[in-house]
Amino acid sequence: MTRRPWRRLAALFVALVIAAFVSATSGAFARERLADADHEILYANLPREAQQTLQAIKRGGPFVFERDGVVFGNYERLLPPRQRGYYHEYTVPTPNVRNRGARRIVAGAAAEYYFSDDHYRSFQRIRE
Description:
It is built from 2 helices and 5 strands, in the order H-E-H-E-E-E-E. By secondary structure, it is α+β, with helices and mostly antiparallel strands.
């Protein structure tokens, strides 16, 4: 039986190339998804509570919930990929809900803002 270590190396190389391609293109797809008009919302069309939360973010607070301002990991990969710590999340209060609810605003370090009303399953970029 002849050993062929190059086959393992070739298979590993192919796997790495595929992983790199998927990683690189997933960010491009996220940018494309958020770039179209269906994934934007005008400030004026935000719920009143989201408008108030956005103003509080820009003022630096105060915030209602203790977890407001924590790092948002973007694990769903729906926002453009950035280094850890770039995004921070804030709760948008939901009327008649006793807990934090599902609505959030995610703020990027370059002053871009995203609204989610379904706990990160989708985002709309806020246009002012």
